[in-house]
Amino acid sequence: MNAMAAQRWNFWGGMITALTLVWAILWAFPLYWGVISSLKPDDEVVRPYIELWPETPTLENYISAVTTTQIGTWYINSVAVAVGVTVITIFISMLCGYAISQLRFPGRIALWWLILASFMVPISALIINHFVLVANLGLLNSWAGIMLPQLIHPVIIIVYKQFFDQVPKDFREAAVMDNASEFGILFKIYVPMNWGVTTALSIVCFIWTWNAFLWPFLSVTRTEMMTITVGITQVNDAFGVYYARQLSAAVLAGLPVALAYLFFQRRVTEAITLSAGIKG
Amino acid sequence: MLRNSRTECLVALVLVAPFLAIYLLAFVYPTVQMFRISFTDAPLIGEGRWVGLDNYLRLDNDPMFRRAVWNTAYFVLMTVVPGTLIALLIALGVSRLKGRFQATVLALFFLPYILPVSVVYLIWDWTLNFQFGIAMHVLDWLEIPRVPVFKSRAWFLPAVAGVTIWWTAGFSILLFLAGLRSIPVEIYEAAALDNSTRWTTFRRITWPLLWPITSLVLTIQLILQLKIFDQVYLFSIGGRPNDNMVLVYYVFQKAFQQNQGGRAAAVAVTLFVLVVVVSVLQFQLLRLAERRRR
After folding, report:
1. Which residues of chain B have pLDDT under 70?
2. Are A132 and A201 within one domain?
3. A259 touches chain B (CB under 8 A)
4. Minimum-distance CB partner of B105 among A24, A148, A276
5. What pLDDT sits at residue A34?
6. Ordered structural domains, chain B, with CATH
7. Rounded to 5 degrees, what are φ and ψ at B69?
8. Which of B36, B96, B104, B114 is the mutation pick for testing A, counting most A CBs within 10 A?
């Protein structure tokens, strides 16, 4: 490559980098704007010009959100449901993934295809019958009712199977020689060897459940049983429009998942790529 | 090594049982029920009379259903391909960066994807607010008249599509980045030695090698956007949802607001079949295209 071509190459390279950076800042700007607006007092929020920083930063909107809505209760509901779904889903998927990966039993292939096929089925088409089912079980307006239809995550089984397939066979054979039980093999060898995947899948399963909207919205009618993602959109209207307070409620609702992402950035991106069927 | 296959079967059954039980209860049973009640005139809760194909035949003359189909198609058109292209462009930009800088820039693009839809709704409802939204100040400054975005019929779906691209691009960007990372550096080095231009390198190397990922992203996006509900519901609060009717919203309206379980189920079955057919078809088509390229 001659010198001039190299120079041109670098110039355009620099331009693209700068462009990407500007684009990223513009992309994230609405998030920044939402947070900043939630820190402004009422009169500043509606000023007819742009102020990128609050003149008198205040937490009054947050205090008002916490004291005048049931946001605390919604938080507890969201945490309970998200933790419940995550623990149950991870546990049953682990067991099922292990059986499909390591054991030979009749119906194994059929089960595997069933799991793969359910990937294509739109869960949101099932809302009517989920509602009927949960109503018949008497679980509307309850944590168990919000959780039940959300326990179907075939992709987690698929990822576990792939990872268990990769564990060298020697480990298993040695354990079988020692008369270890299948449960022992699973929980003393296969699970500990794959803690990374379990952590990553747990975090994204938590995020998915925390963010779920349609089903929690349908299955709960009582304000005190709402999850936070539903609550913040349902109740504010009753008090008239307080933009800054709505935004502070939004910040509170988004904070746990945003922090989970920022703390475990690599794990989250790894699990999300895995969930699409790509090895990271 | 001797393996006792009967014990093995028994253990397998125990391990598979919890998943299978939940799967049958919360997935297979509702699916079967959905098909069954779509042939009856059942209300949301309770039994109905068998009416044969009546619920499906009615859809043919149902203007609201037709609108729901068109709006869903329109929404898919505005999100799937544009969203994928935007994600690809961003991924190409991000993949050139290194280390911490790359992680930071990626986080800025990815953060919206991690947020609940209701938070996305509140943020954009505020940003595009007719009276006080910052976007309207920008419009004023450009001397373009303000638009009440989510109250205007013409702007509603395009705006929701834009917000949706913003919200979901992070996922596609991640997949593209994984794809770009798996292209061997040597190929690019060889191209650089040949004095290949940026555009030729992209067209001859990056694009074909990235095609499997592109097709995956397109498929995932298509299936996701056919099921659009949350954003349309939320942005329609206080507006006119009937103008912005989409398929899942129609299921919701028929079942939960008009108490017509059977007729809602017929719409749900239509959506169900549509998603399954489209995903199988598109998957096959893209695989075919990939094979021809080789």
Report:
1. 1-4, 283, 286-287, 289-294
2. yes
3. no
4. A24
5. 93
6. 62-293 (1.10.3720.10)
7. -65, -50
8. B114
Residues (pLDDT < 50) of chain A are: 1, 280
- Which is nearest to B15 in space by CA: A182, A131, A198? A182
pLDDT for the residue numbered B286: 65
Is A68 an 8 Å CB contact of chain B? no
Query: Which chain A residue has its CA at the smallest distance from B219's CA?
Result: A120
pLDDT recorded at residue B288: 72
Question: Cα(A231)–Cα(A78) distance, rounded to whole angstroms?
Answer: 10
**Same-domain pairing of A130 and A200:** yes
**Per-residue confidence (pLDDT) for residue B197, from 0 to 100:** 83
Of A12, A99, A251, which is closest to B12 when you measure between CB atoms?
A99
Q: Is residue B79 a contact partner of residue B225, using CB atoms and an 8 Å limit?
A: yes
CA–CA gap between residue B269 and residue A249 (Å, rounded) = 37
pTM: 0.91
Answer yes or no: do A52 and A127 share one domain: no
| B161 φ/ψ angles, rounded to the nearest 5 degrees | -65, -45
Domain that holds residue A11: 3-62
The values of phi and psi at residue A279, to 5°, are -75, 125
- pLDDT at residue A280 in the model: 39
CA gap A142, A77 in Å, rounded: 9
Q: What's the total number of domains in chain A?
A: 2
Q: Does residue A163 lie within any of the structural domains?
A: yes
Distances in whole angstroms, Cα of residue A30 to Cα of each of B105, B113, B150:
15, 13, 17
For chain A, the distance separating the N- and C-terminal CA atoms, rounded to the nearest angstrom, is 34
Q: Is there a contact between B96 and A17 if contact means CB atoms under 8 Å apart? A: yes
